Amino acid sequence: MELLNKRTLEENIFKILMMISISIVVGSLIIIVALVIINGGPALTLELLTQTSSGEFYLGAGGGGILNAILGSLLLALPATGLACIIGIAIALYLQKDFTHPWVAGFVRFSLDILWGIPSIIYGVFCFLIMIYLGMSASVLVGIIALTLLEIPIITRYMDESIKLVPIGLKEGAYSLGSTKFETAVKVVPRQALPGILAGILLGLGRGIGDAASILFTAGFTNRIPSSLFDSTAALPTMIFQLSTSSLPIVRQKASATALVLLLIVFTISILSRTLSKRYMKYVIK
Amino acid sequence: MSTECRIQIETKNLNVSFHGHHVLRNIDIKIPAKKLTAIIGPSGCGKTTLLKSFNRLLEIQDDVKISGQILVDGKNILAPRLDVPDIRKKMGLLSQKPYPLPMSIHDNVAYGLRIHSNKNKGEIESTVEHCLQEVGLWNEVKGRLHDPASRLSVGQQQRLCLARAIAVEPEVVLCDEPTSALDPLAAQQIEKLLLKLKKDYTVVLVTHTLRQAKRVADHVIFLYFGMVIEQGPADEFFNNPKNPETKAYLSGEIS
User: How far is CA B123 from the centre of its chain?
Assistant: First the structure.
């Protein structure tokens, strides 16, 4: 009886610990979102969304919005995610037993995990140095490259893990119909692994669109909407950085509004891709 | 085995090992064409390994060593520089648990057609219908051909796998305990189909139920601990086994 009590107590303590951990995470999320809405909500006007920023914008005199940063962020993060997906799926498919020796795969996975852990500022500096060496200046193109490098490890490892879970029987089925490795890897395996692949893409996009450090030096900052790949551009994270360092409360409010826009964009993309993945999820063989 | 019977698959001194574990030892067997050959034996005796060596599916696992010869229609498929997909195309596969492709019912059958032939849309449609009819699935699915294959019952999925296999016109159908995951009714349907198929195809059936082998087999190969103990026509094998181990297995003394 006493033993049972001790074990029940143990279980209850464990339950309480779990609840505390969950509350810390969920609580922080709620507080962040609430703060962003409370601080930024009033500044989220139509003007903010539809105009580019002018000089006075940073001085609190109104005069413009963050359209250049919104477009800049999309111009940087979407192509970067696209590129990272293409490179990532190729690596992820190659890492499977069908194509390469497990020893090689293990080494590549290890490298990707290390790359994943590298702070984004390092990617920024790395691309910055190459940019200087090539005599280029901060631009959309260099920003895209920096973000692509940042996103590749995340997207690849996610895809890799979900592709690894594709049952061998399914591959055997495709092979026994006379599929080549390539046909199986391109036409069959990704369909089965789709939910995990999409999750990886989303995570990569989320990291890319929210990252400031890697584009700080590489994409630059400007008040204009970029008209070519070689123009520098503002982005939402760098805009938040610019605005929140202001001494004027009204400008810091705009920083919160910008953060709110960033949150909404990530939220929308996530909803969109979830709806999209539901359409294909039904084909997955359990 | 009567002399007029063509040999579809023949192995000569086939040895297979996984991770240094010797699974198949000196296998010499002959599988007659357009007959149903059952490979029987207790669990873990190498039946599935033997079956999957016929279409070189073992190679997708790592650390496999295969030596010897496997002659399909007289040609050694283990010879170097062969087109492996081409070898596999000649051998349909039914696995223990059905794995339809993650596509619609229609595309499951059309997949093989699309990668191998340049049939036009109309020809593909008629082949898909024909194959689904062959396996008795057409009437059950004709109204929902574009539904995901994952929504079919397990028995239907197994028949769909058979349909997609015969769509690429193989010569051999390899079956790895295809009824073990099915309910008795669905299992019976598959058995009937296999009996029907052996008119046009060479069927190789791995099974661990003796009764199933007795019901359907024309020819039997008995494996025990990775070795062929006895092989021959089913009548002879079941009624007049020569080897003492076969006798013991048939009487249920070893399993």
Answer: 27
